[in-house]
Design goal:
The chain is mostly helical. It has a single domain, classed as Fic-like fold (Orthogonal Bundle). The chain contains eight helices and no strands. The longest helix is centred in the first third of the chain and has 21 residues.
């Protein structure tokens, strides 16, 4: 069984979740990262081709996770059932997810925030809830970008700025720090991370 090498801020998998790996030949973190990236590429292709506009629904969020990670993990697209170092209690995931997506839909309908700020706020809520055993950051970034494209008709956030957010580096450190500030109700650093200016 693979022994993952988690960067700071990553969500460790328990033994049952690790057992959900569909490819037994994978033994290193590098191999797992490569396999997941191939699956994400396939999921992004699906996302680019879909004409669905219901991106702010629990059903879409679950399907997106399944499309991004379902070739790698048996539990992709299902809510986690274990507590983690981050995230709401597992029994609250369904309620919290629906509330976050309903809020985001309200922001779109009422022009509450500029599009990029709305996407950043949705991203933070998704990471805070942490619906799935793993892949939550990547899923949240892609869902936020889907919101921008499908509902606002604008381009995606430059999350990485050329860095690899799966590895510890200056960009990931800034990202994790900004998420923690948002957890304390200070969205400013996360907006700055995405090169945005908050509304006055």
């Amino acid at each position: 069984m693979i022994a993952p090498d988690y960067p700071d801020g990553a969500t460790p998998l328990d033994l049952n979740e690790l057992a959900g790996l569909k490819h037994r030949h994978i033994t290193t973190q590098a191999e797992l990262d490569e396999l997941e990236q191939a699956n994400i590429t396939s999921g992004l292709l699906w996302l680019s081709r879909t004409r669905r506009k219901d991106v702010l629904t629990p059903g879409f969020a679950v399907e997106l996770h399944r499309r991004l990670f379902g070739d790698v993990w048996t539990w992709a697209g299902t809510f986690r059932t274990t507590g983690k170092n981050i995230g709401v209690d597992p029994v609250q995931i369904g309620v919290q997810l629906r509330a976050a997506l309903d809020d985001a839909l309200y922001w779109v309908d009422r022009d509450t925030y500029a599009p990029l700020e709305a996407a950043i706020r949705l991203h933070h809520r998704m990471v805070f809830i942490h619906p799935f055993a793993n892949g939550n950051g990547r899923h949240a970034r892609i869902l936020a970008d889907a919101m921008l494209e499908k509902l606002y008709g604008v381009g995606p956030v430059d999350w990485t700025a050329g860095a690899d957010l799966l590895k510890m580096n200056e960009r990931r450190a800034a990202y994790i720090s900004a998420l923690k500030a948002a957890d304390r109700h200070d969205i400013g650093p996360l907006l700055a991370f995405a090169r945005l200016t908050g509304k006055p």
